Amino acid sequence: MIGCTTAGEIGAQGYAEGLIVAIGFPAQHFAAETLLIPDLARLDAQAAIGDLIRLRGALAQANPDREHEFAFLLVDGLSAKEDELASALAPGLGATQLFGGSAADGVRFLETFVFHNGTALRNAAVVTALRTDCPVRVFRFDHFQPSDTRMVVTSADPSRRRVQSINAAPAAQEYARLLGKDPHQLTPFTFAAHPVVVRVGGRHHVRSIRQMDENGDLIFFSAIDEGLVLTLAEPMDMVDHLSRSLGSLTTHAAPRAILGCDCILRRIEAQEKQLSGQISTLLRLHNVTGFSTYGEQLNAMHVNQTLTGVALYAPPAKARP
């Protein structure tokens, strides 16, 4: 049994608050093994890779008839180690796809926990490898597209995901100027509505701003560094995009269930635009269960303002003898 604290849940009725939400994988169709990483501050990448390869190998050997595999990651969302961890685990995954979410604490950003077999842990992560005879599809969706407005990080503290200056000007002041706003108008909704993206591997990935501090620095949800070129992103219609994206998971058949990790900034945007009801309806119709996060993972990447997850399909009918 694994779990984490959240910034809200996705339950039977869609978006929810204050619930305990769980999803169970029936032993008839799934087998799972977990790898606990108890101290992210002392992450030994080579040891983690070796442990993950051995775990996956043993799981495959014990379940030769379950040909489908995926990995699910839960990680402390205040550790600031998600980027490093996702990158470190990638060589141990082979062709297996990984998705996950960062444990959260509402909008307080004070205490986050990951749970593993009855123990609550800080600064930790749990990787779960699953094999199944059910077809699966790991996915990621975000509803932003890059604009023509670019900026360069000219001063930053990568260890704390803190940007002090953009385009050689104070970070919050320059970000606000590019938006046509006063720095004092910057709010969590501003950051949710106007994230930035970076281009990696031929596609853009969202890098969201968590907050502005008293010095006018911008603190991000994911890795940031000097010299990085950021592009302001423009949102597409959130409801229409989610409807089309979830619909794309229905090819030959609709998923029986979807496990999703949904960024807290998506929830904030939906609330501010009074779209929570419509989003909840879509999540309910598509059988999505999950939670709101401080960041999401897909394979070797840690991203923001994204919905990552896995669609689970019914196993093929067995031929009668």
Task: Give short descriptive properties of this protein.
2 domains, 38% strand, 8-stranded antiparallel sheet, alpha+beta, 6-stranded mixed sheet, 321 residues, 23 strands
Task: Chart the SSEs and their pairings.
Blueprint (H helix, E strand, L loop, with lengths): L1 E3 L4 E3 L2 E3 L13 E8 L7 H18 L5 E9 L5 H8 L7 E7 L10 E3 L2 E3 L3 E8 L3 E6 L2 E14 L4 E5 L2 E2 H9 L8 H6 L2 E5 L2 E5 L1 E4 L5 E3 L8 E7 L2 H10 L9 E7 H9 L3 H10 L2 E6 L2 E3 L2 E3 L3 E6 L9
What does this molecule look like?
The protein is an alpha+beta fold and 321 residues long. The protein has two domains: 2-141 and 237-312, no CATH class; 144-235, no CATH class. It is built from seven helices and 23 strands. The chain has helices spanning 45-62, 82-89, 171-179, 188-193, 238-247, 264-272, 276-285, and strands at residues 2-4, 9-11, 14-16, 30-37, 68-76, 97-103, 114-116, 119-121, 125-132, 136-141, 144-157, 162-166, 169-170, 196-200, 203-207, 209-212, 218-220, 229-235, 257-263, 288-293, 296-298, 301-303, 307-312. The strands form four sheets. Strands 11, 12, 13, 14, 15, 16, 17 and 18 form an eight-stranded antiparallel beta sheet that branches. Strands 3-2-20-19-23-10 form a six-stranded mixed beta sheet. Strand 5, helix 2 (82-89) and strand 6 form a beta-alpha-beta unit. The two termini are 37 Å apart. Pfam families: FIST, FIST_C. It comes from Pararhodobacter zhoushanensis. Residues 171-300 form the FIST C-domain domain.
